[in-house]
Structures are given as C-alpha cells and as structure tokens.
Write a structure and sequence with these properties.
This protein has 325 residues and is of the alpha/beta class. It has twelve helices and 18 strands. It folds into two domains: 152 residues, Quinone Oxidoreductase, Chain A, domain 1 (Alpha-Beta Complex); 133 residues, 3-Layer(aba) Sandwich (Rossmann fold), CATH 3.40.50. The strands form four sheets. Strands 3, 5, 6, 7, 8, 17 and 18 form a seven-stranded mixed β-sheet that branches. Strands 11-10-9-12-14-16 form a six-stranded parallel β-sheet, with helices on both faces. Strands 2-1-4 form a three-stranded antiparallel β-sheet, with no helix packed on it. Helix 5 links the parallel strand 9 and strand 10. The two termini are 16 Å apart. The model has no long low-confidence stretch (mean pLDDT 97). Bound molecules: NADP nicotinamide-adenine-dinucleotide phosphate.
Length: 325
C-alpha cells in the first residue's frame, strides 16, 4: 500500500524544490495512531522551511507541512478506542503533506468535532498565534484598542474575530484597499491603509486611549507607523516579516515613548505549554467558530502549483492541499 508524500531533499525555491515521492504506507506501532490525512494549508513558514530560511531547519529529505488534519483509521496496540474516526492533527515534526501518518497518540491533538475539516486544518498555527498574542502580552481591558498590520492575513483575520468576541477593538492596517470592506464585515472596528498618511485618522479614532498593544507581521516602514500610533509604554510584538525588511524606527520613538519591542513564536509556546492549556485554547477557539477564507484547494499531485499560488501575494485566502480523494 502506497503513501504519496510531498518531500524536499534540499533547500531551494519552494515550487521548484518540492517533489512527490511514493513511500510505503506506515503501520501503527504500540501507542500509535494511523491517520488518513485530509487537508493541510500552505503557510509562509512552510515555504520558509523549504527555502531553508526559517528559524529551524529540517533534516533532509523531509516531508513538508507543519499543520493539517486527518481522520484516525487504525490504532496500534494499547491505544484507547475513543481515538478511532476522530479528526486530529498529527504529532509535530511528522510532516503533514502526505496521505498517511503513523505517530504516537500522546503527541496528537484532537480537534472539537464542531469544526469543519477546512477550519480545523488551519487552526493550529495562525488562530493560535493570534489568540496567544492577544492574551499573553498585556491584560487588555474591555473596549481597549489593539492595532495590527497585515490585517487580512490568516493571523490578522483571527485577531479581528477574537478581539471582537472578547470585547476589544481593532485597528487594522492593510496594503490593498479592496480588502477593507471585507475586514469590516468580519468585525474590524477600523481598517486603514498601511501608510504614514493614516496616522491622523488613527489618532482621531483612539483619542486619549491609544493602543497599548501592536502586532507586526510586516517589518520595515510599517513598524514606524505602529510605533507612532501606540501609547507611551506600549508593547510592539513582531511575529512575521512579510516585507523581508528589518524594523525601521526613529530614535525619538524609543527615547521618548518608552516603547518595548518583543518577538513572538508560537512554536515556543507549544513546546512549553501543558496539554490542558493547549486543549483549553482549542476549545475557546472552536467556540468562536473563526472563519479563515480559502483561496483554492489543490490535490497533493498538484503540490507545485499549490506552492506557486501560495508564493503569490494579494491572495483571497489560504491555499490548501487535499491529501486524499
Ligand atoms: N511567529 C509565529 O509564531 C507565527 C505564527 C503564524 C504566522 N506567522 C507569520 O505571520 C505572517 C502571516 O502569516 P499568515 O499565514 O497569516 O499569512 P497569509 O494568510 O498567508 O497572508 C500573508 C499576508 O502578508 C501580506 N503580505 C505579503 N507580502 C507582503 C509584503 N511584501 N509587505 C506587506 N505585506 C505583505 C499579505 O497581504 P496581501 O494580501 O495584500 O498580499 C497578507 O496579509 C507570516 O509572516 C507568518 O510567517 C508567525
């Protein structure tokens, strides 16, 4: 029995480097689940892993993909039967862009049954990052503003929906005017273009209650705008670098506003979190019924086309891989 996998044997341009390999379908060993994979997104970090530009490196050859879901089809000896037919995320490090995975049940995450396969496939990385950044840096008060750039990304859309549900207000910066109405409809309190001219409008909106928390996934000039928009003493959290430019900052902002700059990596949180904390976060996220749009779903056999599509900016949602028909 075969297991088609999307693998990379060297680092390089993602759509040119990825290839399909046929391997033996794994057998679940003691304590393991056999998972028939359904769907997996193509995230920026997956592309960076293949390029070799991410913060960690895979030992090669590697099956690509960090998140995704499948259904438990068989159990190894000693595994509780309650796992059968559940929708799960396989253990970290197994590579999700393949048809079948066998891995220890203790390292798999069960998703609440109320989630669709598509939304469950996209929950582990981006909504979780949004949830953690909104909860772990500042105890936000009801009605308080937060500000973010790349607001139409999967993380950004999660921030909008979580903030709305928790009673916080969001100012959202985007580089394309055509997404403004869509984000308003999603619950954004304000959506503005990510450009210096937007500063007066932000100041007018917030008055004397400027944001104490800013979330940055762009870098470059955009951080200057965030830094000018926030309150004295605010925290500016960098979690992405979509512009591939370093943070640009005026010295005076650091001297006179007492701002603090932080980095965030959700993988570190997962490494340190207790299992019950992770489960509790997914319960909370599932109750919010977040909606992350999907731009296209490609079969695994078209993984190169999927990666080429994901490498394009100005998409209307995530690119997903369908791993089994
Ligand atoms: N640190 C962590 O733990 C963590 C966790 C999750 C995600 N991330 C990072 O968060 C970022 C967003 O991830 P995602 O999966 O939510 O993204 P996504 O849904 O794939 O969307 C990408 C976003 O980046 C914007 N963008 C692309 N190129 C840009 C550029 N040159 N300048 C400014 N904006 C640009 C896009 O705007 P357009 O639609 O206008 O192209 C879009 O808003 C990525 O950098 C990712 O690596 C980090």
């Amino acid at each position: 029995m075969k297991n088609l996998c999307a693998i990379y044997a060297e680092n390089g341009p993602p759509s040119a480097t990825i290839q399909i390999e046929s391997r033996e379908r794994p057998q679940p060993q003691a304590g393991e689940l056999l998972i028939r994979m359904e769907l997996a997104p193509v995230n920026p970090s997956d592309l960076n892993m293949i390029e070799g530009t991410y913060g960690i490196k895979a030992s090669l050859p590697a099956v690509a993909g960090n998140e995704g879901v499948g259904v438990v089809e068989a159990l190894g000896p000693g595994v509780d039967a309650a796992w059968l037919q559940r929708r799960v995320r396989p253990a970290t490090g197994t590579g999700t862009w393949q048809q079948w995975v066998a891995c220890p049940a203790s390292d798999c995450l069960r998703f609440p049954a109320s989630l669709s396969a598509e939304q469950a496939a996209m929950l582990y990385v981006n909504p979780a990052t949004a949830w953690r950044m909104l909860h772990d840096f500042i105890p936000l008060q009801p009605g308080e503003w937060v500000i973010q750039n790349a607001a139409n990304s999967a993380v950004g859309r999660s921030v909008i929906q979580i903030a709305k549900a928790q009673g916080w207000k969001s100012i959202n910066l985007v580089r394309r005017p055509e997404v403004i109405q869509e984000l308003r409809d999603l619950g954004a309190d304000a959506v503005l273009l990510d450009e210096p001219d937007s500063l007066p409008a932000i100041k007018e909106l917030c008055g004397s209650h400027a944001p104490r928390l800013a979330l940055n996934a762009v870098g470059g000039e955009s951080v200057q705008l965030l830094s000018k928009a926030v309150a004295t003493g605010a925290k500016i959290v960098t979690y992405g670098a979509m512009s591939k430019q370093g943070l640009r900052l005026g010295n005076g902002l650091l001297i006179f506003k007492d701002l603090s700059y932080h980095g965030y990596w959700v993988s570190r949180w997962y490494q340190q979190a207790e299992r019950n904390q992770i489960d509790a976060m997914f319960e909370s996220l599932a109750q919010l019924n977040l909606q992350i749009p999907v731009a296209a779903i490609h079969p695994l056999s078209e993984v190169r086309e999927a990666l080429a599509a994901a490498e394009q900016g100005r998409r209307n949602g995530k690119i997903l891989l369908r791993l089994n028909e």
